[in-house]
Amino acid sequence: MATALHTTVEAQACCAPLVAAPISAPDADALARTLKALADPTRLRLLSLVAAHDGGEACVCDLTDPVGLSQPTVSHHLKVLVDAGLLTRDKRGVWAYYAVVPGALDSVAAVLDTQLRR
Amino acid sequence: MATALHTTVEAQACCAPLVAAPISAPDADALARTLKALADPTRLRLLSLVAAHDGGEACVCDLTDPVGLSQPTVSHHLKVLVDAGLLTRDKRGVWAYYAVVPGALDSVAAVLDTQLRR
DNA sequence: CGCAGACATCGACGAGCGTCAATATCGACA
DNA sequence: TGTCGATATTGACGCTCGTCGATGTCTGCG
């Protein structure tokens, strides 16, 4: 589904007029959906493992052992991350290769700084 | 309890050697605790409302109406945010004034960029 | 074709979360 | 002292989440 986080980021990320108006309810909902996908230690480790892997991509078999969970559980977490727009899935032959979406984390960080700073 | 997020941030936030090694399990746990506090639309709105309020602080009575929830529920969410180290509580007389912790959100954003970028 | 392996889906279970009404606590003020 | 008002705490409810074992689906290979 890839929640878009289309919150209007000000022209420049640095030194915006700080918090002018509070976040709207729909924007808060969208941000919360993305953060909920991130707010799990296993998913953070999976994201990190994929990012640190050779070529920036990894298949499920590379990730099952490091996190110490069953294969269905790892597949479930990866699906959550893909649905949140944080990971991409590329099935080549028998293997499914996951890679981090380039700007996704930056967007989250930018919204946090822009909308909630003081 | 104020989870510290003491993950060692590289010397400069910009252009670090990207993801060298995956996040450790304890670090992932600490980050997840903070993100879990953020991953709720009501708490995001409360954080935003406090940040946007005059003087950077607000009491419970200022926040109950905008979010449309009961007073105990708002108090509960504020306690979660304080326990996560994202808000401070200052009780003056009958009122309790909440304010955003200056660097907290920046830390979260920095860890996201540093540990999970590619 | 038939088998083996990689991954996804399903169903179920226990734990945790968000919300509320009811109640408790505490400070201000008459 | 006694009452009022602002906030915190408690107990309960329904719902969501993380995890697993079992099973389904699809690909490559003999």
TrEMBL record, chains A, B:
Keywords: DNA-binding, Transcription, Transcription regulation. The keyword Signal does not apply. It comes from the Bacteria. Residues 23-118 form the HTH arsR-type domain. Pfam families: HTH_5 (PF01022). PROSITE patterns: HTH_ARSR_1, HTH_ARSR_2. InterPro entries: ArsR-like_HTH, ArsR_HTH, HTH_ArsR_DNA-bd_dom, HTH_MetalResp_TranReg, WH-like_DNA-bd_sf, WH_DNA-bd_sf. This is Metalloregulator ArsR/SmtB family transcription factor.
